[in-house]
């Protein structure tokens, strides 16, 4: 693949994602103030010292936005990686094993998917201790059900191909077939799905934080910043719109890249998709 073949929309998405990750990685170096530092009055307008103004407690909004990128991206990426690890391993195991294992895992997955995701997350997070690792685990488990459906559909298509049958006749073990035969041939559609799940994780985390069960204050994350500053909207203060715009912009950038990946993989076999 040549760089010139990448469309403009995909380049915009890639640059937007790279910028967000740059801010997240170097937050402590590029943020003008500390994450929790109160620097001025409440909801100060933007000026030469506070480029985006201040929030409901007088903290620099730009600094909080940069540190919020660190928290939001770390939690969303960790949850996406964990959900894919769980979903792909279980779905490929079900597709290769068949029989009772496939039926048992698939019915359990259907049961999990029948429960509304947000309601389930709110109930579980309200009962369990509010911890970032528990938050990541809950998000990953809920999202792995969607990954399982796609992974199983793709794996079932690949599992009937001749090279997989040849591996079985050679006496290769189940793990060999999963990781050496099926996974390399399923990477393209799975990478596109990973982008979609990552975008969903960003939105889901922001929703949980807005409802008070995500990232806990005083730590900065974009959903929590919207919650903290929402009361200012009725007074014409736009502090809540800035992190909201950041969430929307990052989600759009991810979707631009995913759309390009889907177009590249649309001609590949292995896509019963959402079957």
Automatic annotation (TrEMBL):
Domain of life assignment: Bacteria
A single Gene Ontology CC term: plasma membrane
Pfam families membership: BPD_transp_1 (PF00528)
The keyword Transcription regulation is assigned to this record: no
Membrane topology type: Multi-pass membrane protein
Keywords carried by this UniProt record: Cell membrane, Membrane, Transmembrane, Transmembrane helix, Transport
Location (main, coarse): membrane
PROSITE patterns for this protein: ABC_TM1
Any GO BP: transmembrane transport
Keyword Lipoprotein: no
Residues spanning the membrane: 6-31, 73-98, 118-142, 194-215, 235-262
Compartment annotation: Cell membrane
Ranges where the ABC transmembrane type-1 domain occurs: 69-258
Family to which the UniProt record says this protein belongs: Belongs to the binding-protein-dependent transport system permease family.
Protein name: ABC transporter permease
Naturally occurring in which organism (per UniProt): Thalassospira lohafexi
């Amino acid at each position: 693949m040549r760089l010139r073949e990448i469309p403009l929309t995909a380049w915009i998405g890639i640059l937007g994602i790279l910028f967000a990750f740059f801010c997240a990685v170097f937050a402590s170096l590029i943020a003008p103030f500390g994450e929790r530092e109160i620097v001025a009055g409440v909801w100060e307008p933007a000026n030469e010292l506070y480029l985006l103004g201040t929030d409901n407690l007088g903290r620099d909004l730009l600094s909080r936005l940069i540190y919020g990128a660190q928290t939001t991206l770390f939690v969303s990426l960790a949850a996406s990686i964990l959900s894919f690890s769980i979903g792909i391993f279980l779905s490929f195991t079900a597709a290769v094993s068949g029989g009772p294992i496939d039926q048992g895992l698939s019915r359990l997955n259907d049961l999990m998917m029948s429960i509304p995701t947000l309601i389930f997350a709110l109930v579980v997070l309200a009962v369990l201790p509010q911890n970032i690792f528990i938050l990541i685990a809950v998000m990953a488990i809920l999202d792995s059900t969607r990954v399982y459906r796609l992974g199983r559909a793709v794996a079932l298509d690949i599992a009937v191909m001749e090279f997989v049958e040849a591996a079985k006749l050679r006496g290769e073990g189940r793990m060999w077939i999963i990781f050496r035969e099926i996974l390399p041939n399923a990477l393209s559609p799975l990478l596109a799905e990973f982008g979609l799940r990552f975008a969903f994780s960003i939105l889901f985390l922001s929703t949980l934080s807005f409802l008070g069960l995500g990232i806990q204050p005083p730590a900065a994350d974009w959903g929590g910043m919207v919650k903290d500053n929402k009361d200012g909207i009725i007074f014409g203060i736009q502090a809540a719109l800035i992190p909201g715009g950041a969430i929307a912009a990052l989600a759009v950038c991810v979707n631009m890249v995913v759309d390009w990946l889907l177009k590249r993989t649309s001609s590949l076999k292995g896509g019963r998709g959402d079957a």
